[in-house]
Amino acid sequence: MSGYVAVRLGYGVRFVKSVNHGIAFETEIGLNLTRIIFVGFSYNLLSLFVYDHSNTNLNTYAFRVGFNLGK
Fold first, then answer.
1. Distance between CA atoms of 38 and 32, rounded to whole angstroms?
2. Quick check: 18 pLDDT over 80?
3. How far apart are the first and last CA of the chain?
4. CA-CA-CA-CA torsion sign (15, 17, 19, 20)
5. What's the confidence (pLDDT) of residue 71?
6. In the Cβ-directed half-sphere of 70, how many Cα atoms lie within 13 Å?
7. 10 Å Cβ neighbour count for 14?
């Protein structure tokens, strides 16, 4: 068993009613339970640039269970 931390920064696009775009940020912390199975908790932020010069922030929290198939 081992722990991990991930931080990602990028550019995001949202396709709901109209196309919005902005800065995307994600941070994640988790445990590799075995060499293949992991669990983690992540926080995502998408800060959208809106045409009336205001910003809209969308926050998402996620619990992840997954598989590392490349190991």
1. 4
2. no
3. 14
4. negative
5. 59
6. 0
7. 15
Asked if residue 53 has pLDDT above 80, the reply is: no
Q: What amino acid occupies position 24?
A: A
Distance of alpha carbon 43 from alpha carbon 64, whole angstroms: 11
Alpha-carbon distances, residue 59 vs 1, 15, 34, 68 (angstroms):
30, 16, 30, 26
Q: How far apart are CA 14 and CA 29, in angstroms?
A: 25
pTM: 0.73
Q: What is the rounded distance in angstroms from the CA atom of residue 69 to the CA atom of residue 10?
A: 25
